[in-house]
Design brief:
By secondary structure, this protein is α+β, with helices and mostly antiparallel strands. The chain has one domain: Aminopeptidase (3-Layer(aba) Sandwich). Helices cover 25% and strands 29% of the residues. It contains six helices and nine strands. Strands 1, 2, 3, 4, 5, 6, 7, 8 and 9 form a nine-stranded mixed beta sheet that branches. A hairpin with a 4-residue loop joins strand 8 and strand 9. Helix 1 packs across helix 2. The longest helix is centred in the middle third of the chain and has 15 residues. It starts with a strand and ends in a 6-residue tail after the last strand. 38% of the residues are buried.
Length: 249
């Protein structure tokens, strides 16, 4: 298993999206994801890491730098994932120097889950970001067991700890064990809006009544309006802060 940044292995950039991922179908219809995610590894290869085994890409980790001190900005915005991705591309275009970096995702090939690979990719990403001179990696974490309790508010979910004091959620636990600190909820980290026909196609569910619809793999219920022929999913994530030892440039 080899872990490097994409900047060190640019020949793998074209394979970054060939992983058999386990993301739910509806997330691919998130507009910011659709517009920008596929450009991250080309624009910010030094902030993105790749794991290969036998020459095949088996995991990836993406992060982006952004400026958190410009007017109206902060390091841990409520619009989480969407917001930092938009800021990163705006800053690149306008020449604003980044002040911090945010992880976007760690995706492990479906055939390689359960081998501790996400932990190694997170470590590699922390190292890659530190090499760019940052002393912090922020992460809008998508807790991977929250979908089992969609009606529980995320703030309440965060209070659930094991007897050893670590988060009950497995993915949050990986971050905390790696040295991360849970800071706050990003209440609207991703938003997916579609017609009822769209949602039926994405989920196989009827979407035939007003109100909350619990969708498999969704962290909170989807809000459905028959009158407006619209259903909207607003996903909360959790901001985790990793302190790094920055390398000299």
């Amino acid at each position: 298993m080899l872990l490097t940044s994409f900047a060190d292995r640019p020949e793998l950039i074209g394979q970054a999206y060939e992983i058999a991922d386990t993301w739910p179908e509806f997330t691919s219809h998130e507009p910011v994801v659709g517009a920008l995610l596929s450009r991250v590894v080309e624009e910010f290869p030094e902030y993105c890491v790749v794991a290969t085994e036998g020459g095949r890409v088996v995991a990836r980790g993406f992060s982006v730098p952004f400026n958190a001190v410009l007017e109206g900005r902060e390091e841990t915005p409520d619009r989480g994932w969407d917001q930092v991705l938009l800021w990163a591309f705006a800053d690149r275009r306008h020449g604003h120097a980044p002040t911090v970096a945010s992880a976007l995702e760690i995706t492990v090939d479906a055939g390689h889950l359960g081998r501790g690979l996400s932990y190694r990719v997170l470590a590699a990403m922390r190292e890659a970001v530190g090499k760019q001179g940052h002393d912090v990696l922020l992460t809008p974490v998508r807790p991977n067991a929250k979908h089992l309790r969609p009606r529980l508010p995320m703030a309440d979910y965060l209070t659930e700890l094991r007897t050893d004091g670590l988060p009950a959620d497995p993915w949050l636990r990986v971050h905390v064990k790696a040295g991360g600190t849970v800071e706050k909820v990003a209440v609207a980290s991703m938003t997916v809006s579609g017609s009822l026909a769209d949602w039926r196609r994405w989920t196989g569910l009827p979407f035939d009544r007003d109100g909350e619809v619990v969708v498999p793999a969704a962290l909170v219920p989807v809000q459905c309006s028959l009158t407006h022929d619209r259903a909207v999913y607003v996903e909360p994530n959790v901001w985790v802060r990793h302190r790094l030892s920055p390398h000299a440039h």
